[in-house]
Amino acid sequence: MTDKNRSQWDLGRFIETLTYFEVIPFLNWVQELIQGRPKDNQNRPDGGRNMGVILVAGATGGVGKRVVRRSLERGYKVRAIVRDIDRARSIIGNDVDLVVADITKPETLNSIVMADVQAVICCTAVRVQPVEGDTADRAKYYQGVKFYQPEIVGDTPENVEYQGVKNLVKAATKYLPQASEKLIFDFTNPSIELKNIWGAVDDVVMGGVSASNMQFVENTALFAGNVSTANSGGFASVRTKNFDPPFNLSDYEGVKLRVRGDGQRYKIFLRTETQWDGVGYGYSFDTVANTWIDIHVPFADLIPVFRAKTVKDAPPIDSSKVCSFQLMLSKFEYDNALNPKFSPGSFSLQVESIKAYGGATLPQFVLVSSAGVTRPGRPGINLDEEPPAVKLNDQLGGILTWKLKGEDSLRESGIPYTIIRPCALTEEAGGKELIFEQGDNIRGKISREDVAEICMQVLKLANACNVTFEVKEGEKTVNSIDWQRLFSNLQRDK
Ligand SMILES: NC(=O)c1ccc[n+]([C@@H]2O[C@H](COP(=O)([O-])OP(=O)(O)OC[C@H]3O[C@@H](n4cnc5c(N)ncnc54)[C@H](OP(=O)(O)O)[C@@H]3O)[C@@H](O)[C@H]2O)c1
Fold first, then answer.
1. Ligand 1 centroid to 90 CA: how many Å?
2. Element containing residue 214 per DSSP (H, E)
3. Which residue out of 124, 366, 421, 437 has the highest number of ligand 1 atoms within 8 Å of its CB and is therefore the one to mutate?
4. Which of 130-144, 255-269, 279-293 has the lowest mean pLDDT?
5. 8-state DSSP, 274
6. Cα(45)–Cα(318) distance, integer angstroms
7. Which intervals hold domain NADH:ubiquinone oxidoreductase intermediate-associated protein (predicted)?
8. Please, are residues 448 and 63 in contact by the beta-carbon 8 Å criterion?
9. Atom of ligand 1 nearest to the CA of 104
10. Stretch 95-114: mean pLDDT, rounded?
11. Is 3.40.50.720 the CATH number for 53-180+361-488?
12. Is the peptide bond before 245 cis (omega within 30 degrees of 0)?
């Protein structure tokens, strides 16, 4: 082993690097010849897609299956809590991650069910059916307006509407991420896709002999290798392929890394241009040897850099189109200044996650409850005018009373939430104007389609946070709804 050997520049690695990032098509082209043409975009990960998972409880039910469908249509990853997986597959198909769990059994609501969950939509309900029985497709129950003498079958309202909801809220409290953050890379449970996104870009691209890579060990991404200053080199890095479409992080203040390093100073670069050799927006951060720390990288503090030189006239980063990320250890800071916390040789930086931080707080737990939950036992209530569930609350095991207690557990949890209390649910097509109220006094009906749509809308509405409201449909069919306006008329819960 001689210095001569060590400093021998490696053309093969140089070509590999440029090929991985599609700068030159050489190896990709050979691969295509052997394996056939890859599907469009196979090589370009999608930054536009919502990275977090939406967890739907009650996904096989009338509202739940529509929430699943709408979530998939919007590009969310969906996980469904189901009790019978074959039945669930026949109702909601295969594009959903089906997990067998039961909200009345808290031990089933574990880290596998909750992994990567960004928001929970709960549409569960105790089973109610006509005393005379229902058809296999539950047509009598689903019509919602015609009256059949109802009864509870199976589990009790106390177990499902209260304990079950409370169990789900508790699991959410434990596992949901900060509401103001968006997960970009979660290395605790990396998919194959995620592992293929990162590739090495070492000083071999300019004649050096440093070598590094990204490995996935101990539920982290490990950026490690050897930096050599031979051949005027002195940096190692790992970079993502370009995301297409890019990440829109304009609602956030910056990105946050959870890292454990070796005491050296590293850099992160974000890019908004897809070309290989363009301006990168850089930020240096110091690590503490063997200690996990959070690094906040405010977009406002990113420095535009081109080949390690700062670009004085470059605009600030456009965080609405971040197309790649890069982590680097370099002998240099910027403009030929030396990195004061650098030593050549082996290095290691473990990364647990990269998130966007500083966003608005949005609802993370949507509970589909029911109009009428506060009416049983309310002084002055005229039961003859009330819907069956209010009139028959006692015969139905206190269904509404327990629903209210389930709501309370969510209101008290500290999770940003929205509680939707629909009037009688129908299987109609929906698309009607919506009437929102508070105080629990309205009567009427609403399509399950529209309730599912409300569930989807509130996930993006800061002013739907910590709000409980009733909803029914009006007469008019409408083409579009001003959701901001509807929610801006509502009061937040105390
Ligand atoms: N019907 C109405 O007119 C009306 C009016 C106002 C409000 N609501 C409320 O609106 C919500 C949605 O109603 P919907 O008609 O869509 O409900 P649904 O069709 O009866 O669906 C209930 C769902 O809950 C699931 N579930 C029940 N117990 C569970 C448990 N222990 N663990 C996990 N999942 C469980 C069921 O799963 P399985 O498939 O495994 O049984 C099913 O997917 C409910 O909260 C309901 O009370 C209804």
1. 17
2. strand 211-217
3. 124
4. 130-144
5. -
6. 20
7. 185-351
8. yes
9. 31
10. 96
11. yes
12. yes
Residue ranges per structural domain of the chain: 53-180+361-488, 184-357
Task: Name the residue with higher pLDDT: 18 or 451.
Answer: 451
Judge whether residue 308 has pLDDT over 90: no
Q: Is the CB of 81 under 6 A from ligand 1?
A: yes
Give CA 57 to chain center in angstroms. 16
Distance CA 161, CA 399 (A): 7
Ligand 1 centroid to residue 156 C-alpha, Å: 13
Kind and range of the H or E run holding 162: none
Ligand 1: centre distance to CA 207 (Å):
64
**pLDDT per position as a tens digit, 120-134:** 999 999 999 999 999
**Strands 117-122, 365-368: parallel, antiparallel or unpaired by DSSP?**
parallel
Task: Quickly tell me which residue has 């390093």 as its tokens.
Answer: 261
d(CA 467, CA 464): 6
pTM recorded for the entire structure: 0.79
With a 6 Å cutoff on the Cβ, whether 272 touches ligand 1 is no
C-beta separation of 436 from 489 below 8 A: yes
